[in-house]
Design brief:
This protein folds into two domains: 193 residues, Glycogen Phosphorylase B (Rossmann fold, 3-Layer(aba) Sandwich); 172 residues, Rossmann fold. It contains 16 helices and 13 strands. Strands 3-2-1-4-5-6-7 form a seven-stranded parallel sheet, sandwiched between helices. The chain is elongated. The structure holds ligand GMT. InterPro entries: Glyco_trans_1, Glyco_trans_4-like_N, Glycosyltransferase_grp1, Thiol_BshA. It comes from Flavobacterium ponti.
């Protein structure tokens, strides 16, 4: 199949999922065309099955806001015609489903029919999309998609609860490549560079937005390091990063925390981590937690959104109510202070992650593409 994938090209989960999906589909022989405003961060090499088409938005002083949706839908029309694309797959409803639908309509005008799949990722529904300023356009473009998928059952239920959706929403969970880390990477795991032999390593990876409750992470770590020698690895960039640095400083733990910024090598950080923290306000899935588990890192998370579908209570980690820093600290200490338990949780985390093997999930998308194409 010839598939156009529209996504955000950044470090955010939806862009990562879209890119990894495209890479795997290309490996399986499909022709993949990424259409976005810059080359997706996880898309390294292009080849005959992997194409990237940049959406240019020329700056024009008349516009206070440059019209990205218009440029994207025009690019989609051109690329569908040029490469004879069979199906459009847009990740994140805003504004991709809206732009995709416009492209569909423009193509229809020229006698070309193309189906559109929309994958909902989370904040496009729960935080941003639900805002009254966007809601009518988001409802409309979801209802006009040929097939709608969501990354968790929780997100599907939230979508039905928050929007007037008349379509079936198919749940296709996010995925990982279980044995992605090469033996070379495992051998070069730099634990000794980051911490002393007796120190436990705790990691958080995100875009440091309010929804991630970054201050809870610092507070949980503060409680842990009072009981157990430990270091905290903070990976990512975002609006809450400065606040986190300031809080570490005022709590007197700045020397125990490493702020990495964005990283394309999270496997190298996860390979020496003992515990992953994700106390988010809401999380449709929690791809970062799954990536940690795939590297054998147990997870202390909140129990909101789709997290209980990924992190299994008392097995791959523990889940607590949002904001319950004490319970999260207690659970973290209970795993980290018991070597036998820690070892077992690491094994369990890997086992749970293997249930989300890319090889089982990608065929679900292929089936959906075929269904959509057959409809036309
Ligand atoms: O919040 C983020 O981390 C970014 C956001 C995105 O849209 O890229 O992530 C959402 O999609 C991910 C991939 O499906 C999910 O794993 C995240 O849970 C989801 N974020 C939220 O729901 C807050």
């Amino acid at each position: 199949m010839k598939i156009a994938i529209v996504c955000y090209p950044t470090f955010g989960g939806s862009g990562v999922v879209a890119t990894e999906l495209g890479l795997e589909l290309a490996k399986k022989g499909h022709e993949i065309h990424f259409i976005t405003y810059s080359q997706p961060v996880r898309l390294a090499l292009l080849n005959k099955n992997l194409h990237y088409h940049e959406v240019h938005v020329p700056e024009y002083p008349l516009f206070h806001y440059q019209p990205y949706e218009l440029a994207l839908s025009s690019k989609l029309v051109d690329m569908v015609k040029l490469y004879k694309i069979d199906v459009l797959h847009v990740h994140y409803a805003i504004p991709h489903a809206y732009a995709g639908y416009m492209a569909k309509k423009m193509l229809e005008d020229e006698g070309i029919k193309i189906p559109m799949i929309t994958t909902l990722h989370g904040t496009d529904i729960t935080l941003v999309g639900n805002h009254p300023f966007y809601k009518p356009a988001v409802s409309f473009s979801i209802n006009k998609s040929d097939i709608v998928t969501s990354v968790s059952s929780s997100l599907r239920d939230d979508t039905y609860r928050l929007f007037d959706i008349k379509k079936e929403i198919i749940v296709i969970p996010n995925f990982i490549e279980p044995n992605k880390s090469s033996s070379e990477e495992i051998l070069s795991c730099k634990r000794s560079m980051m911490a002393k032999e007796d120190e436990k390593i705790i990691t958080h990876i995100s875009n440091f937005r309010k929804v991630k409750r970054i201050d809870d992470i610092v507070k949980i770590f503060y409680n842990i390091q009072k009981e157990i020698p430990a270091k905290l690895m903070m990976v990512g960039e975002g609006p809450e990063k400065q606040m986190a640095e300031d809080l570490c400083y005022s709590l007197g733990i700045y020397d125990k925390v490493v702020f990495f910024g964005n990283s394309s090598e999270i496997d190298k950080i996860l390979c020496y981590s003992d515990l992953f923290l994700l106390p988010s306000e809401t999380e449709s899935f929690g791809l970062a937690a799954l990536e940690a588990m795939a590297c054998g890192v147990p997870v202390i998370s909140s129990n909101s959104g789709g997290l209980p579908e990924v992190n299994i209570e008392g097995y791959s980690g523990y889940l607590s109510d949002v904001g319950d820093v004490n319970a999260m600290s207690k659970n973290a200490i209970s795993i980290l202070s018991d070597e036998v338990k820690l070892k077992q949780f690491k094994i369990n985390a890997k086992e749970v992650a293997s249930r989300f093997d890319i090889l089982n999930i990608v065929p679900m998308y292929e089936e959906v593409y075929q269904q959509a194409i057959d409809k036309y």
